Amino acid sequence: MSPRSRSRPPSRRRRPPGKARSRQDRTGGSSPPDRRAAGAGRRPPDRRPPGKKAPPREAGGEAAAADTTWVFGPARLAETLEAIPAQVRRVLVRTGRLERRHEVLLKIARARGASVQRVPNRALDRLAAGARHQGAAGEISPIPWLRLPDLLAVDPPPDLLLLLDGVEDPRNFGALVRTADGAGVASVLVPGRGAAPPSAVAMAASSGTLARMRLVRVRSARSALRVLGPAGLLRVGLSPRARRPWHAHDWTRPTVLVVGAEGRGLGAAVTRECDALLSLPQLGSGRSLNVSVAAGIVLYEAVRQRMLAARQRPESPQRPNSRGRAGIAPAGSQDGRVRPVGLSADEPASEAAHARDPQALRNRG
């Protein structure tokens, strides 16, 4: 062999043009590693849309179920246990030294037969996801939704309803439910789309009344109004552009009040389905009130008119309303009769006639 042939480097086999390198060429002849085995201990990439947070994790480390509602705070949780103990799945209370409110909560929970667990405070922090838990949380069973035909089949039929149109803020949703519960509303109707869900934020804003209120899921506010009108309810919408004041309506008649989202208000299609539109005066620089505040003013006008009407016929027996209560009797009435707001038991009947005049009421104040 000549010296020239010994110094020549070994020739490499050229690949045809356009042919890619094989796995053996890339890995030096060894088989490639298994990608699933190589990434077995790695965390999968976060593919959630930007701005969307991960679901809160429970004390055991597993993600909370999507249909689970939580109540945070010892006071609100104690109220929920008193009202609906069967719907409380478990009560979580922080470990360590307890305050008086936590001891009261534990006493109520054990008396109602609820499951109680002591968990670290950091577990409650993860569960609350930024909400104030004050060392206590309660898991509530999924809120049952009724159908509109089932609601209208109740005997006696409902005479005061609240219909939400596009209320997407959970705090407003919870505040509206709380106001409706206080005013004796038979049910709150919520569209399937464009509405806030009964989340933990809404539950906190409602002070637990969200789990006690009769909620009805409807396809849309417009479709619900088309059913409620023939069923005998007056469809009254609250709009800042209306000319009639809120007290001009006869609230002693069966009525459904329709309220819209802040800023947008009622939709055009929903407005056309209403029998009447009412408004609240704006005497200041603000353009509108909070939707829960506005609904509260109107609903308690209904309470006032119905109490005055019941005061005029004290001998007639009170017909239980659709929520099982005999009228709207205020606390402290000794003889069971319903009296107007501001009148005591020893005031003569002439005061009731005097109180029926709104101008007289303003002069008295």
Structural topology:
Layout: H1 3-7, H2 23-27, H3 35-38, E1 69-72, H4 74-83, E2 88-94, H5 100-111, E3 115-119, H6 121-128, E4 136-140, H7 148-152, E5 160-165, H8 170-182, E6 187-191, H9 200-205, E7 215-218, H10 221-228, E8 234-238, E9 244-245, E10 255-260, H11 268-273, E11 276-279, H12 291-312, H13 349-355, H14 358-364
Helix pairs in contact: 4-5, 8-12
Strand order of the largest sheet: 7-6-5-10-8-11-9
Beta-strand residue percentage? 5-15%
Encode the helix/strand succession as letters.
Answer: HHHEHEHEHEHEHEHEHEEEHEHHH
Radius of gyration: 32 Å
Helix content: 25-40%
Euclidean distance between termini CA atoms = 124 Å
Number of helices: 14
Taking pLDDT < 50 over at least 5 consecutive residues as the criterion, the unreliable ranges are 33-41, 51-66, 324-365
Shape: globular
**Highest-level CATH class of the domain at 148-304:** Alpha Beta
